[in-house]
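User: Structure tokens for both sequences below?

Assistant:
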Amino acid sequence: SVAELAVKIAQHMDLPESEIEKVDIAARVHDIGKIAVPDAILLKPGKLDEAEWKIMKKHPVISAELIEGLSIYSHVADAVRHEHEHWDGSGYPDGLKGEEIPLIARIITAADVYDALSTDRPYRKAFSREKSLEILQKMRGKELDPKVADALERVLKSEKG
């Protein structure tokens, strides 16, 4: 799962246990805002059109708003809001880049990307572990924080075999 992988990344980055717990919580609830996205968009087998993409891009903000309302999870709302931001500033919802993006969000992004690549989707079959790693390497320094991408690669290589 995204949460299990995110926790392993955080551990490989030697984060303190308190931060690893936040990673775990945030990763478990990061997509809760998708409840506001119609199934026709979530399960669409093809590319989303502009209007559909606009709706889909709202889910991190909705997730954060829902989580902010739950006092036990409110401390991870910022990470959840920004888990679709990209290292190079090309993500959403706020166009943050680099260190502006909370570290927890950067970790969840990497885990979520690997999960998306390595599992079947309505629009394509899963990529192999090797192909997923190859794609992740191309995303390093663009969509993904290089240090987080390196930690993810270490996790995946340590689990190989």
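Moving on to the next sequence.
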Amino acid sequence: MLRSDPLNKKMTERMYHRDSYVTECEANIIQKKTVKNTVEVILNRTCFYPFAGGQESDRGVIGGKNVIEVREEGDAIIHVLDGEPEQTSVHCAIDWRRRYDFMQQHTGQHILSRCFLELEDAPTISAHMGETRNTVDLKVAILDWERIVKVEEYANEIIRKALPVSIHFFDKREDCPFDLRKEPVVEGIVRIIKMQDFEATPCGGTHCMNSVEVGLIKVTDYQKYKGGYRVEFLCGGRAYGDYHDKVVLLAVLRNELSAKEEELVQVAVRIRESEKSLKRELGSAWRNYLKLQAEQIIAEYMHSPSVVLKKKFHDYGIEKLIQLAGMLTCKVAVPVVLIGLGEEIAVVISAAKESGAKLKESCMPVLQNYAWRGGGSDT
């Protein structure tokens, strides 16, 4: 049986279930409580969508107070406000720009998921529409950019067809005559989002009235995830904004690298290879320099031996101190203490195994003026 108003048994009438374009309403506060620095209210009716179904919640104003969170608890919608409204009868207004953005993302996700199912036999296991990025997790063994591009092209073709999007309610799954992309996960009344003959899916979220409102779907990345693949995508205004940002980024890179757009990858590869070569040359130069330092230190030690060979260096990190300590301990039979002074103090204590030196016993007096901690054995 088709339901025209399935919300009459709910504590809060959910206006967005029937019409995603409702942006304002008058409501009564039926419950409220203070939680730390916020006030939580339950209304008899609301146009605010709560966090649910992988979609973030609405923001806006209730009774002149900012809505900072909306969540679902059983039959109630909890609105978290930054203050207490003065009246129990309140005017509610959602942030329409945010709502419409999520409508584009969610409707786009339905289109993309159906396209992946049709072209790649890849069902969507879960989906999330976040503040800045969206993801669908697919159950599929193989996925690459060639396949993704075909799915994306098909999805944008569906957008351009301007398919009407409709909302349907049924008492139970058996009453629904549509070929559903996935089965309902709730018992009882089922809400279906249908896109003409292309797509029909159980969903409680907010959606556009027509596929053309999604504007554009753009896959931005993909990766293996839990035996399948996770695909990142953007829709509508977000996709256009991302394109704008990338156009600006490419312009900056072209100017900075003095290269044409089609040459940027080759230039980046050359820079990376040059960096690797410079690191190798610098590493070799440092090793030669440390060898010279080690020879000088050993000569000084031989001229004036002590029970501990101690040296301080400015701006020597732990890696250089370890290299130098290795060069010294193979030439002297006493413990070596090297201290690197800078923003942070680095200390290396070392001795040849055959020396039998007890490092804590012999070196602690040398280090008593330094706050340090570390690890390693006593020999």
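User: Anything stand out in the second?

Assistant: The two ends are 82 Å apart (CA to CA).
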